[in-house]
Amino acid sequence: MSVPDDEGGVVDSIVGHPDGPVDRTRRGGSAGSFVAAGSTALSTTLNTALNTVAGAAEYTARTFLTPTGLRGLAVEAAWCTAHLASYPWGLVREHVQPEVTYRHYRTDSLSPGQRSLVMTDMVAAGTPILLVHGFMDNRSVFAVFRRALRRRGFGVVHGVNYSLLTALTGDIRMAAHELRRHVERLRERTGSDQVHVVGHSLGGLIARYYVQRLGGDEAVHTLVTLGSPHGGSVAAYLLPTPLTRQLMPGSDLLAELAEPAPRCRTRFLVVWSRMDQLIVPQGNARLVHPDLEVDTLELPDVGHMSLSIHPRAVHWVASSLARLDDRPARRAAHLGGVARPATGPGPALGPGSTAGPGSASGDVSGGARVSRPARWNSSTRAGGPARLPSDHPGTARGIPDPAS
Question: For 196-208, how does the pLDDT look when each residue is reduced to its tens digit (9 = 90+)?
Answer without folding.
Answer: 999 999 999 999 9
